[in-house]
Amino acid sequence: MTDTIFGKIASGQAQADIVYEDDRALAFRDLNPQAPTHLLVIPRKPLATLSEADSDDQALLGHLLLVANRVASEAGLENYRVVVNNGAGAGQTVFHLHLHVLGGRNFSWPPG
Ligand code: DGP
Questions:
Q1: What is the pLDDT of residues 60-95, one digit of tens each?
Q2: Contact indicator for 66, 45 with CB cutoff of 8 Å
């Protein structure tokens, strides 16, 4: 697949405000925050979309959720929202799987 800006951040070729990283994942601040805290959690593995993941990725997907909880907790968030936009029609613009971690304000339901 073509490398994306998130792939470049994961490989150190592009800058980001990284708040957490390990051998499988990293988390950094969103450039265009939609809430007072808006973090992105990505796998180092270049999965374009959640749809692309399969059973081999089960542990990785669980790890991403645990990282989301960890960075939310470290940001002092008791209440937060985790969002994955899957596909352009759902609002995905960067085709490297990412979890949005949003907090610091109230959220409405259903989402827009
Ligand atoms: P999505 O629409 O779900 O694909 O979300 C992509 C998010 O990525 C969007 O909230 C803006 C953010 N973003 C795009 N380019 C960059 C970048 O170069 N650096 C950072 N930190 N965030 C970016």
A1: 999 999 999 999 999 999 999 999 999 999 999 999
A2: no
Q: Do 25 and 43 meet the contact criterion of CB atoms below 8 Å apart?
A: yes
| The one-letter amino acid at 103 | G
- Ligand 1 atom showing the smallest separation from residue 94 Cα: 4
CB atoms within 10 A of CB 16: 19
Angle at 32 between CA 29 and CA 33, to 5 degrees: 65
Q: Is 32 in the pocket of ligand 1 (CB under 6 A)?
A: yes
Q: Ligand 1, residue 84: give the atom nearest the CA.
A: 3
Average pLDDT, the chain: 97
- For the structural domain made of 5-103, what CATH number should be given? 3.30.428.10
Query: Active-site residue among 38, 63, 96, 98?
Result: 98
Mutation to probe ligand 1, out of 30, 42, 64, 92 (largest number of atoms < 8 A from CB): 30
Q: For residue 73, what are its two tokens?
A: 């907790």
